[in-house]
Amino acid sequence: MNDGTVVAVSRDTLHRFSKVNQDVVRLLAGLGVEGDAHLGVTVQHRSRVAQDPTQPNLRQVHLIQAELFADLRRAGYEVAPGNLGENITTRGLDLLALPVGTVLRLGADAVVEITGLRNPCLQIDAFRTGLLKQVVGRDEAGDIVRKAGVMGVVLESGDVRAGDAIEVRLPAAPHRPLERV
């Protein structure tokens, strides 16, 4: 069952905000994206390392749905795959609606388990002034809504490239909604 499609894959060896589009990225079980600055068993995001470098890396892979880019374009922001620091840009799959523990098969072999929502920081405004307000807002009840994608861990290694199918396997009920990680 094809539940979505990979639009682009990106990585960067340095801790920069945006990532460089690639023809293919290799996901490594328990580590993340080969050649990416966030690869590792323990947390690699600089703010998290400063808090506690021994935390498990629940943010090995960052996925964003391309549909967000259309919303941002309507708000006056031109954003392309990799610009927001994601490793995998998807289409046709509402990533934000998936529950914790959802498993995604990307292409023939790679498997990622969704751990939670990306919590965008002020760096996003350094990329485009005012963009943070576009990707973090509040709903009618006043609750925070994060739209900047989801994070996951790699369960099975494999290559991922644009055009690959994404197969979704939901966890057993009851489902827990995604929270920031």
Automatic annotation (TrEMBL):
<dbReference type="InterPro" id="IPR011037">
    <property type="entry name" value="Pyrv_Knase-like_insert_dom_sf"/>
</dbReference>
<dbReference type="InterPro" id="IPR052716">
    <property type="entry name" value="MOSC_domain"/>
</dbReference>
<dbReference type="Pfam" id="PF03473">
    <property type="entry name" value="MOSC"/>
</dbReference>
<dbReference type="InterPro" id="IPR005302">
    <property type="entry name" value="MoCF_Sase_C"/>
</dbReference>
<feature type="domain" description="MOSC">
    <location>
        <begin position="20"/>
        <end position="169"/>
    </location>
</feature>
<protein>
    <submittedName>
        <fullName>MOSC domain-containing protein</fullName>
    </submittedName>
</protein>
